[in-house]
Write a structure and sequence with these properties.
Blueprint (H helix, E strand, L loop, with lengths): L6 E12 L6 E4 L3 E4 L5 E3 L2 H13 L3 E2 L7 E2 L2 E12 L6 E11 L6 H4 L3 H25 L12 H5 L23 H8 L1
Antiparallel strand pairs: 1-4, 1-7, 2-3, 5-6, 7-8
Length: 190
């Protein structure tokens, strides 16, 4: 039996790090969000996809704080975009699915991290974006939300197509069992 050629697929991946909200975002009404420096890499095998994810992860910004010797100093979004192209119709029919794997840096209390200078500013931006994400989640849980505040931070703006609509979202939270982490763990779970 011959191979079905009625559909073709192209798959691209990208890895974006959001550090101190320094991401240049443009939005086109027709094609959506554009980031000038973001490269989309075509992949055809799972090994290529994993290599891109690992390369991005290895190059993420980390720093030393009193809470963590390899503290994430940024949020990251790994996006897998799959385009299905129907070759049987006169005009090309394309369906697109996106999978965003979002790594969100943990919240920080300056009193626990003893962060100063640049580390302190990073912590402030991390917490600001986490607050914005929490506000988006709260708005989505309302029965008739009037406004979803996706543009309050770069993190929520970049992942806005994952908030509501026909998207499915799964969140995995890292919480610590130690008494010293109780406040952060409780805040994360809320």
């Amino acid at each position: 039996m011959g191979e079905d050629t009625s559909f073709t697929f192209d798959i691209n991946v990208s890895y974006l790090e959001s550090w101190n909200e320094e991401v240049d975002i443009r939005e086109d009404p027709k094609s959506g969000i554009k980031i000038n420096v973001l490269t989309k890499t075509p992949v055809s095998k799972w090994e290529e996809t994993l290599k891109c994810l690992l390369n991005g992860s290895l190059n993420r910004l980390t720093g030393v704080t009193d809470m963590n010797h390899q503290s994430s100093r940024s949020h990251a979004i790994f996006t897998l975009t799959i385009n299905q192209i129907n070759n049987q119709r006169q005009c090309v029919n394309r369906k697109t699915s996106k999978f965003h794997l979002v790594y969100v840096a943990g919240s920080e209390r300056a009193s626990k991290t003893d962060a100063v200078g640049e580390r302190y500013a990073e912590g402030v931006n991390i917490n600001k974006e986490l607050l914005s994400l929490g506000n988006v989640i709260s708005a989505l849980y309302e029965s008739n939300p009037r406004h979803i505040p996706c543009r309050d931070s770069k993190l929520t703006w970049l992942s806005q197509d994952s908030h509501g609509g026909n998207s499915h979202t799964l969140m995995i939270a890292c919480v610590g069992p130690a008494d010293s982490n109780y406040e952060e763990s409780l805040s994360t779970l809320r």
